[in-house]
Amino acid sequence: MIRTTLMLPEELRQSGFDEARRRGISLGEFIREAMRAALTRSPRSGGDAFLDDGAVYSGPVPVDGSTNLDEYLYGEKP
After folding, report:
1. In the prediction, which pLDDT does 60 show?
2. Where are the domains of the chain?
3. Which of 2, 22, 52, 62 is deepest in the core (most CB within 10 A)?
4. Helix axes 27-40, 10-23, angle to 10 degrees
5. What is the pLDDT of residue 27?
6. pLDDT in the model for residue 59
7. CA–CA distances in Å: residue 50 to residues 19, 44, 55, 73, 76
8. Could you tell me the mean pLDDT of each successive run of 10 residues in the chain, 78 residues long?
9. Closest CA relative to residue 6, chosen from 19, 41, 17
């Protein structure tokens, strides 16, 4: 492995350290796992983050979503 120095804001470093400790791994391993995940993720939308599943909304989808789209997006009926 090649040693690399990263400049992290204290809050981000502490959050990463806490999560790594929770998982029982080192901060370095946590960062490597996060980088691997980010680099191997393949967008289903061809690179458009807005259309990438999960980037906009993740959860149950109403069955009438296409019919009542304006109401769901803007809170108003057409």
Report:
1. 78
2. 11-56
3. 52
4. 90
5. 97
6. 73
7. 28, 11, 6, 14, 22
8. 94 97 97 91 62 65 80 75
9. 17
Containing 21, the helix (H) or strand (E) segment is helix 10-23
Number of neighbours of residue 28 by Cβ within 10 angstroms? 14
- Alpha carbons 19 and 44: distance in angstroms, whole number: 28
Category of 16 on φ-ψ map: left (φ > 0), alpha (ψ -120 to 50) or beta:
alpha
- Phi then psi for residue 50, to 5 deg, are -65, -35
What pLDDT is recorded for position 12? 97
pLDDT of residue 44: 58
Measured CA to CA, the distance from residue 62 to residue 39 in angstroms comes to 32
73 sits in which H/E element = helix 69-74
User: Backbone phi, then psi, for 66, in 5-degree steps?
Assistant: -75, -30
